[in-house]
């Protein structure tokens, strides 16, 4: 999935914004859940993006860890960018290794898309609006006003992560997929 998104996402206008066919997504999800072979290259890239967001939403406790939600959200209230980056790196160190590996690939994809935002209309802000709710959510539900505020802060965090991913995860993030 990530490889396809890396290849096709940068040249696809509205990637992650437009949804794939709900019927096709449901059918493919059932096949994937049952362990069947699925060739996503034959499907619309929007279907792949929708399936990927669904996969992220189904990670128990979120990939960024709902238990750390308050800490993630507070990062954006800190001083300068250097302080934010150091805080983010400390939080990343608290995540399971598998989450960190997946995050590096996710932000490698988002970076590739953002670099070509003039073509695909998906700058870091737009990407964050679309993907942030799939990366982190609070551990308990609260009032709609509080949830709305948290959602805005999570989007701001994901935008910052996308814009600074090379400094946060290392420059090699741009070559994780090699020459595709």
UniProtKB/TrEMBL annotation:
CDD domains: RhoGAP_ARHGAP20
Top-level taxon: Eukaryota
Pfam families tied to this protein: RhoGAP
GO function term, MF aspect, one: GTPase activator activity
Span of domain Rho-GAP: 1-169
The keyword Metal-binding belongs to this UniProt entry's keyword annotation: no
GO terms of biological process kind: regulation of Rho protein signal transduction; signal transduction
Keywords in alphabetical order: GTPase activation, Phosphoprotein
InterPro entries linked: ARHGAP20-like_RhoGAP, Rho_GTPase_activation_prot, RhoGAP_dom
Protein name stated in the entry: RHG20 protein
Taxonomy of the source species: Eukaryota, Metazoa, Chordata, Craniata, Vertebrata
């Amino acid at each position: 999935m990530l490889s396809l998104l890396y290849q096709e996402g940068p040249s696809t206008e509205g990637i992650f914004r437009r949804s794939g066919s709900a019927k096709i997504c449901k059918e493919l999800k059932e096949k994937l859940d049952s362990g069947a072979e699925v060739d996503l290259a034959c499907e619309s890239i929007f279907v792949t993006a929708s399936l990927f967001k669904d996969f992220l939403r189904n990670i128990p406790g979120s990939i960024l860890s709902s238990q750390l939600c308050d800490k993630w959200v507070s990062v954006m209230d800190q001083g300068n960018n250097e302080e934010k980056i150091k805080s983010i790196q400390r939080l990343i160190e608290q995540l399971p290794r598998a989450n960190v590996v997946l995050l590096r690939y996710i932000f490698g994809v988002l970076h590739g898309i953002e670099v070509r935002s003039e073509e695909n209309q998906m700058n870091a802000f737009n990407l964050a609006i679309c993907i942030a709710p799939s990366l982190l959510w609070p551990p308990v539900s609260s009032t709609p006003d509080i949830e709305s505020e948290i959602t805005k802060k999570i989007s701001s965090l994901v935008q910052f992560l996308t814009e600074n991913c090379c400094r946060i995860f290392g420059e090699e993030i741009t070559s994780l997929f090699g020459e595709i």
